[in-house]
Amino acid sequence: xxxxxxxxxxxxxxxxxxxxxxxxxxxxxxxxxxxxxxxxxxxxxxxxxxxxxxxxxxxxxxxxxxxxxxxxxxxxxxxxxxxxxxxxxxxxxxxxxxxxxxxxxxxxxxxxxxxxxxxxxxxxxxxxxxxxxxxxxxxxxxxxxxxxxxxxxxxxxxxxxxxxxxxxxxxxxxxxx
Length: 177
Fold this sequence. Notes:
Blueprint: H1 2-31, E1 36-39, E2 43-50, H2 55-60, H3 66-91, H4 95-117, E3 121-127, E4 131-133, H5 135-152, H6 156-160, H7 163-176
Antiparallel strand pairs: 1-2, 2-3, 3-4
Helix pairs in contact: 1-4, 3-4, 4-5
């Protein structure tokens, strides 16, 4: 059962990444100079390249370069994978954790692809007056929303997690790696 669910999770990750990259390739090749309202006056299709590599780097004008971001995202990907593996060892196979991992890991992989192959992020949905985002940002926000719902719910998976031992156990797990 764990193997089947794990395969479904990895297939889901592959599909999410493929959808995000396919959309960017289409936009870059055919719609890069197009702009139109989706839900005026709030949402607009307005493609642009974010060459600052991250939202924090853009907002705080940090000026951190491409390689710092690539290294950071790579380290985060490893930690996300290890934490997912640790959780599945501790809690067993859990659909909500698999779905959350799929969205977070897909978003992180897409972020790494952006930095390496796109030299930034091709963002295309403008929230008027605020920011421009892409599908990878939606993936990461879906993860965040699911995490909040899981924490607020009376989910039996959350009840199994002992907050104090979670960090200690994960730290020991990493050290054994």
